[in-house]
Design goal:
With 58 residues, the chain is mainly β. The protein has strands spanning 11-13, 23-29, 32-37, 41-46, 53-54. The relative contact order is 0.31.
């Protein structure tokens, strides 16, 4: 297992899906990050393809 740049509990946004709203990282193992989004539910993100943006407005 490799360490991820994201941490459980961290708030993020998906740059190509602003309609998903605010998301909270649930798990982060390597480039596989599970995020619970306000308007999309739980989504598995491959961060080698999509770079999540830290939410600065919390």
């Amino acid at each position: 297992m490799s360490r991820s740049e994201y941490e459980p509990g961290q708030y993020v946004r998906h740059p190509q899906k602003p309609e998903w709203g605010l998301g909270q990282v649930q798990t982060a193992i390597g480039h596989r990050v599970t995020v619970m989004f306000e308007n999309a539910g739980k989504v598995l993100i491959d961060t080698s393809v999509v770079r999540l943006e830290p939410a600065a407005d919390i």
